Recover the amino acids of this structure.
């Protein structure tokens, strides 16, 4: 429900503003406000239903994999066993599992940052991977995927796919 409301506000509000200004300039302020509100409500309802449904549809397959949230901001922590240097190098190669491009590789601070390119699902994502060495050769890895555009509401599961692809790669022997 929250997703549909956000979509309604973004699309309906934006369309109402544009329509209201364009009609208001040519036919007067009162007519512009009226036309903007009416058109914005209908456009907002239509777009929130269509895009909201599409987001939920694309996430159906992914949701079977123990998903906590389907929003574009994804965060997951998991453990792997091995030596820190080996796991760090494997993580660098693992960026390719979600077609990422390495941005920062800082072994001293146990940090890897990558980006993905624009697709029909999103304007790209910023990926951050943190490694934390525990006892007995256990490495705790935290991966986050966030849209490049901070106001992006839907990504059709792209952020979750990035995280799951990386986890799957890292859990391979």
């Amino acid at each position: 429900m929250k997703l549909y409301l956000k979509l309604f506000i973004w699309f309906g509000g934006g369309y109402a503003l544009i329509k209201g200004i364009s009609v208001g300039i040519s036919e007067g302020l009162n007519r512009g406000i009226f036309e903007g509100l009416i058109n914005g409500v209908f456009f907002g309802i239509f777009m929130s239903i269509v895009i909201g449904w599409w987001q939920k549809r694309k996430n159906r397959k992914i949701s079977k994999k123990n998903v906590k949230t389907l929003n574009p901001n994804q965060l997951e922590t998991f453990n792997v066993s091995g030596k820190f240097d080996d796991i760090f190098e494997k993580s660098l190669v693992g960026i390719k599992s979600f077609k990422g491009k390495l941005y920062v590789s800082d072994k001293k601070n146990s940090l890897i940052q990558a980006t993905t390119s624009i697709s029909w699902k999103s304007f790209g994502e910023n990926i951050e991977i943190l490694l934390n060495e525990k006892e007995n050769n256990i490495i705790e890895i935290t991966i986050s995927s966030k849209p490049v555009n901070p106001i992006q509401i839907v990504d059709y599961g792209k952020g979750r796919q990035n995280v799951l692809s990386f986890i799957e790669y890292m859990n391979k022997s």
